[in-house]
Recover the amino acids of this structure.
């Protein structure tokens, strides 16, 4: 049955209610139309794919808004992790120790250090956000089944 | 979309066909889903014959709240479309 793999992908990626409300009708109409015509057109696949992307954006934006309640904890976790890994940079640089520095202390050091801190901050923000990401909702009808 | 749904329950694909190209297949289901989440439309799955394959299709109809919002939007749109001379 055409569209079955897209339904599987959608079920893996989307919240249960979003799948039921947004992607499932698109795939059902696609399957119905394909059964009548006995062949699927590339444009039909594109329409279902666009519905999948739209539903995915609906879910992600909703989940990001749900993170607002935990923003203070996420900020604290990010700050802790960033401080830890930035301290590693300071140790590696050998600042104030008089030992051989692993990092070259040339004019571009500050730029590189800032880029490192920015990279570490983004990575820490992502991992901290993942800790508080809302759990995947399953559809009511799925639980009833 | 609510205008098209007012006359009868329709499938998403039927809405696209009835719109004469104004609604697109790729975006209508997400829009309908958002409208359902806001309470503008309600939907139900079609009744299927035993042994039918594929996912069940979904039928949409407007809610009373959705029609009120549409009427309010029409009033606002008409009011804003008035020229200053007509508004006096």
């Amino acid at each position: 049955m055409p569209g079955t793999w897209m339904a599987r992908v959608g079920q893996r990626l989307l919240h249960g209610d979003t799948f039921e409300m947004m992607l499932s009708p698109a795939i059902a109409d696609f399957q119905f139309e394909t059964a009548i015509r006995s062949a699927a057109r590339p444009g039909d696949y594109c329409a279902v794919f666009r519905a999948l992307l739209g539903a995915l954006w609906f879910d992600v934006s909703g989940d990001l808004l749900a993170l607002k309640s935990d923003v203070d904890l996420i900020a604290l976790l990010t700050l802790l992790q960033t401080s830890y890994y930035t301290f590693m940079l300071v140790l590696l640089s050998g600042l104030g120790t008089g030992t051989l520095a692993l990092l070259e202390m040339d004019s571009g050091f500050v730029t590189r250090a800032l880029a490192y801190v920015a990279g570490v901050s983004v990575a820490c923000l992502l991992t901290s956000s993942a800790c508080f990401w809302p759990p995947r909702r399953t559809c009511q009808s799925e639980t009833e089944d | 979309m609510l205008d098209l749904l007012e006359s009868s329950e329709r499938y998403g694909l039927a809405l696209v066909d009835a719109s004469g190209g104004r609604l697109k297949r790729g975006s209508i289901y997400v829009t309908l889903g958002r409208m359902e989440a806001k309470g503008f439309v309600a939907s139900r799955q079609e009744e299927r014959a035993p042994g039918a394959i594929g996912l069940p299709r979904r039928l949409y109809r407007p809610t009373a709240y959705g029609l009120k919002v549409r009427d309010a939007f029409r009033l606002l749109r008409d009011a804003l479309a008035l020229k200053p001379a007509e508004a006096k």
Observations:
- The interface with chain A takes residues 11-13, 24-27, 29-30, 32-34, 36-37, 43, 53-58 of chain B (CB under 8 Å).
- Strands of chain B lie at 10-11, 41-45, 58-62.
- The first strand of chain B starts at residue 10 and ends at 11.
